[in-house]
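Thread title: Can someone regenerate the structure for this chain?

I was given the following input by a collaborator and told the matching structure tokens would be attached. They weren't. Posting the sequence so someone can regenerate them.
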Amino acid sequence: MTAAQAHLKANKELVAEYIRLFYNEKDFDRARELLAEGFVNHHHGVGVGRDRTVETFRGAASQMPEFSLTVRRIVAEGDQVWTHSVARVAPGAHPSVVVDIWRIDNGELAEHWDVGQAVPEGSTLAEMTGDATTGDAAPGNAG
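Best answer:
Regenerated them for you:
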């Protein structure tokens, strides 16, 4: 493995670890340690700073404690990592498909953008994720 490949692998592992801690385990204190001091979250209403990001989601998690984010794909290029994931507010809940973009700086998460879409009625999760092997249909959806 080249140094460049090792760097990209480390960036992907950093993002995967953050997602595991922050969204799935709700270990906000440990997840916060992975954010750069000047972390910028471009998600509407969250704003600048690691503390604001953590506290905003901590409040949201109290309203939906079973929220989960399952990464289906992860791609790294340069200082960015992109994930293509499935979000659910609770097990069996209607899913959304989400793309997150992370910028890494000195081994820390420095910036985040995201966009998501609920799986529409009549569509399957497999159609939305491009993963024909899942056979995973959204509740109430064909599939």
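The first strand starts at residue 35 and ends at 41.
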